[in-house]
Amino acid sequence: MPLRRNGAGVVYCPLLDDSEAEVERALVDKLRIASMLVCLAVGTLWAQEPPVANATGQSAKPPRVTRILLSRSSGMCYGYCDVQLEVESGEAMLVNHSRDKDTNKCPDLTVRADLSGTHWKELVQLVDREALFALPDRIGCPGCVDQVVESLEVRFSNHTKKIVQYNLGSAPKEIESLSARLAALLEKLDGELPPNTLCGR
Prior knowledge:
This protein is an alpha+beta fold. Helices cover about 30% and strands about 25% of the residues. The chain has a six-stranded antiparallel beta sheet, with helices on one face. Strands 1-2 form a two-stranded antiparallel ribbon. It is elongated.
């Protein structure tokens, strides 16, 4: 709009008429809408960006298995009633424990064995961490009718662990293969335990 001078030589700009004001409001509205659309597009792209775990841009590695334990415990039992197999990279250890307070008569029986890297890797590959943690801590009613209770525990490098208890022979399908492989190793090492004929008498 052209500038005008009044009689005193002062330059002024007359007010916009209705049509001009309406055009200006429409332009401001369009700019506001365009700005909102740009912000929305940027936000959408940001949300779709894959998470960056570290400064190098590489995704964080899942925690690795550090130790696996298989335990069995009997309710109505005399002598050696509790056995635990502990497996980690390079070694397997089996401990047979008695509830008898006389440790001279019934000492813990222990056997250790080397575990090959291949064997350890095969066991670790049977661990599905997500499926494992989705399981309840107890399956069915462990030991309710004097059954042997089996307990499977897996520990991870981030200091988390999961323990699942169930009756012997009733391992859930998510850990059935792992339980079977550990049971085979347990039975093998059990045959190598030092004999004790006094405990339980």
